[in-house]
Amino acid sequence: MLSVQGLCKRFGGVTAANEVSLQVAPGEILAVIGPNGAGKSTLLNLLSGLLRPDEGRIEFLGQEITHAPPEVRTWKGLGRAFQIVQPFPEMSVWENLLVGALYGKPSTPRKVAERVVAEVIELTGLAPKAQTPAGELTLLEDKRLELARALCTQPRLLLLDEVMAGLRPSEALEAVALVRRIRDSGVTVLFIEHLMPVVRALADRVVVMDYGRVIAEGPYDAVAANPKVREAYLGRAQ
Ligand SMILES: Nc1ncnc2c1ncn2[C@@H]1O[C@H](COP(=O)(O)OP(=O)(O)OP(=O)(O)O)[C@@H](O)[C@H]1O
């Protein structure tokens, strides 16, 4: 579904992404982890088009998108949910989602967009809050809204940027169940996460970054036992 080859991004003297290559298969849930400053957000920004790489190539569904603007990636089916949720606070949950469903496609018939919103609002458990102004939601509901907004763009691959940050453990478990439901509805997921219990519970496969490079990849237990990965985390903690 997604193929990344030799991606490099430099900020002055810092190489935030250094020859990053990875593949995402249809239907999988892939976690990208690594210590602070490893380059995870940079990678996500390169994939969603907020940053342009200095080198390398990104293919999505067999088409090159390396230099495509973010909205074109969204239309092709590459969606993104952000860590900082920024809904329109005075608009209802339903209206916020309608914006997602119509994003960049104002000619979409209203009925079609509303059908998408109705499906997504059920899937994400937000139906009881449909008419609530987004500014009155709890943090967990905010996170649901952000996932729902991204889903309304009808992604084939959804990029999640630390969407569990700030949640209590029981809320994080609910969010894990929601991401599983999203995958089961046919959406492939790539997520960045610091909470290891979440990574362990959710990821089919884990890619580990350190100093801009991919240093390990595989099932959670294998990467957690990998000496290079342990050194990256423990070394940085001192
Ligand atoms: N816009 C920028 N300008 C300059 N340096 C940047 C910029 N964005 C990121 N960096 C640097 O690139 C490196 C990778 O940062 P990045 O935010 O991608 O890491 P991360 O793994 O997402 O970290 P965290 O887990 O703390 O969010 C860091 O050294 C960071 O300071």
From TrEMBL:
Domain of life of the source: Bacteria
Keyword Acyltransferase on this protein?
Answer: no
Species whose genome carries this gene:
Meiothermus ruber (strain ATCC 35948 / DSM 1279 / VKM B-1258 / 21)
- Tell me the protein's name: ABC transporter
Q: Which GO terms describe its biological process?
A: D-alanine transmembrane transport; L-alanine transport; L-isoleucine import across plasma membrane; L-valine import across plasma membrane
What InterPro entries is this protein classified in? AAA+_ATPase (IPR003593), ABC_AA/LPS_Transport (IPR051120), ABC_transporter-like_ATP-bd (IPR003439), BCA_ABC_TP_C (IPR032823), P-loop_NTPase (IPR027417)
Keywords noted in UniProt = ATP-binding, Nucleotide-binding, Transport
Q: Where are the transmembrane segments?
A: none
Query: Which positions fall inside the ABC transporter domain?
Result: 2-236
The UniProt entry, under PROSITE patterns, shows: ABC_TRANSPORTER_2
SUPFAM superfamilies reported in the protein's UniProt record = P-loop containing nucleoside triphosphate hydrolases (SSF52540)
A GO-annotated cellular component: plasma membrane
Which PANTHER family does the annotation name? AMINO ACID ABC TRANSPORTER ATP-BINDING PROTEIN (PTHR45772:SF7), CONSERVED COMPONENT OF ABC TRANSPORTER FOR NATURAL AMINO ACIDS-RELATED (PTHR45772)
Which GO terms fall under molecular function for this chain's record? ATP binding; ATP hydrolysis activity; L-isoleucine transmembrane transporter activity; L-phenylalanine transmembrane transporter activity; L-valine transmembrane transporter activity
